[in-house]
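Worked example 3 (structure in, sequence out).
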């Protein structure tokens, strides 16, 4: 699945965000932008997999709907954190304050990157090599 490969590639870069100069506003904005891309890959992968699993609601699902369906289908999926990610992703276009951007960056580093990594690990465990064949 091309989307899964993109998810993994983007995550390989994003997981090193904490090793950057986090006081640099350009770096902060870059981490936030990379998070947004990673979130998009994540919910769209979930959508495709839910369609594969036969979830009819996933066909026309919004990110919120896909997250709720994924929570119902996958025992490893933390819907609350993903809903928080969705809220942050939607709110980030209104972040003009440097402190708000730093707070979001810290949530990305502390909570969201580990969730992205967990999703990758669990999907590989759940679907195996089938992910590259889809």
């Amino acid at each position: 699945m091309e989307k899964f490969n993109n998810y993994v590639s983007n995550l390989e870069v994003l997981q090193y965000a904490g090793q950057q100069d986090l006081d640099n506003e350009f770096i902060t904005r870059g981490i936030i932008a990379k998070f947004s891309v990673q979130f998009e890959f994540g919910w769209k992968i979930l959508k495709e997999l839910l369609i594969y699993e036969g979830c009819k609601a996933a066909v026309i699902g919004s990110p919120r709907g896909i997250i709720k369906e994924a929570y119902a289908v996958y025992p490893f999926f933390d819907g609350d954190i993903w809903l928080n990610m969705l809220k942050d992703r939607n709110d980030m276009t209104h972040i003009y304050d440097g402190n708000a951007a730093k707070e979001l960056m810290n949530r990305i580093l502390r909570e969201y990157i580990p969730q992205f990594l967990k999703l990758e690990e669990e999907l590989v465990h759940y679907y195996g090599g089938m992910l590259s064949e889809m």
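Notes: The chain has a mean pLDDT of 92. The chain is about 75% helix and 0% strand.
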